[in-house]
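re the bet — no i am not wrong, look at it urself. input seq straight from the record:
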Amino acid sequence: MDEFKQLSKKTLLYLLLASFFITNALIAELGGSKIFSVEKLLGIAPLNLNIFGMITDLNLSVGVLIWPIVFIFSDIINEYFGKRGVRQISFITAGMIAYAFIIILVWTDMPPADFWLKLNGVDSQGRPFDINFAYNSLFRAGLGIIAGSLTAFLVSQLIDAYVFHYFRKLTGHKYLWLRATGSTVISQLIDSFVILFIAFYFFGNWSLEQVFHVGMTQYIYKVLLAIALTPLIYLVHEGIDSYLGKETSIKVIEEANTNWDKKTVSE
């Protein structure tokens, strides 16, 4: 009975972590088309930063705000369920993102109702407003952005899983911050540039210089936020240890990593 209870707790834990992972990834993808000004948010003048010879302000996609959280939960899943658990949830998430975009593309192609257009024909200041155009602009991403986003997500997630596991083999149960931060620093470097290169250079009209500078700005932000959120990893870790029990928690971690090592050797 105790063994069944432990298995139920482990299953529920994976479902909760996976659900939070998928939800945050979907939110970041679907709502990330808005670009916001960090300077305006903080109420300060434009910084006019010189990043490798290019003057730029801190303008970021709102989706970037929660991507570090996605990678933090990726690290937590890796810690308790190994690389196999991360790979599974990464492919499932990519499939859900692709599914969501297909549904949105179908919805945006549907003809709008006349009364809906009329009811929303002006904005709050009485100016003409095309709500169907606004809806399509916000929710319909181009093929390049979809391809870049999914490619960047999968590649960075798989790299994050392998780097995290590598650091774990070196550190054992110690230095969780090193495993989490180290894997994020490397994987976010890939994530920050792959999506921009595919979406805006390969499919778009950006120069490689623009890709580099915008990607570097977002990468620096992601790394700094990931470091700042390190205490959250320990907080979640402690919560899981309390939920499973310290002894069971250690057993789950060891099983996840031992099983993967055996699978890797057999292959």
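see?? The chain has a mean pLDDT of 80. told u. also The CA atoms of residues 22 and 121 lie 35 Å apart. so pay up
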